Every structure is written in C-alpha cells, then in structure tokens.
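Supplementary notes for students who missed Thursday's class. We covered one full example, reproduced here. Read the sequence, then the structure, then the short commentary at the end.
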Amino acid sequence: MPLCLFFTNLKRSDLPEDLEERMAKTVSDVLNQPVEWVFCMSHCDMPAFLAGSRDPGMVCQIHAKVIFNNEALAKESFPKLFPVLKEATKIPGDRIIIEFIPVEDPYAAIGS
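Structure (token representation):
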C-alpha cells in the first residue's frame, strides 16, 4: 500500500481540491499499483524554512514496499512526479522535495 504524504507551508485553500487524487493516480502509474491501494494525505500550513526562505515549499514523501531500493527506478520516477506537484501547487521545482522511503513487507499492509 503506497503512502504519499505532503508537508507544506501553504494553506489548504491554496491547494487544488483534487491534489491527493491527482497524486494517487500518478503514484499508481509510477509504481504500477492499483489506485485503490494508494493513500495520499496533505499536512498544510506548517511552518517551514527551505532553501534560504519561508516562500512556499513542499516535501512529498512516498512510502512503498521496497520498490525504491532500485536506484534506476527511483531516478526515472522523479520526472513523472514533479510536473504534477509543480502544476498543482504553483511551487517552483527547486522548492519541492520528493523523498522515496522503502517499507519492508512485514511493516505495510491493508487491513481487511
């Protein structure tokens, strides 16, 4: 179950209502996982200092089972993810950080 978390100093009202849905679809495509398995959550209006200023910025963490242990896959995934975040948030790319966090199998599951 891929997990996508956004941390930003923007207010929720500054983000498009469908940001989580857009990223869920993109993460689903990048990871070749059903969109129903992807969970996206935004944490907004957080105090932040990035690249020398308090201008709008974002950290996007994508947690997924082991898939990002593959450096080549991680590198080819960045260009698919950044455009979605830049277009949706209007934050310049140099103020967006995407962090891939591998999660081992025993520590990630969908409840039934």
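Commentary. The domain at 3-107 is CATH 3.30.429.10 (Macrophage Migration Inhibitory Factor). The first strand starts at residue 3 and ends at 8. If anything here is unclear, bring it to office hours.
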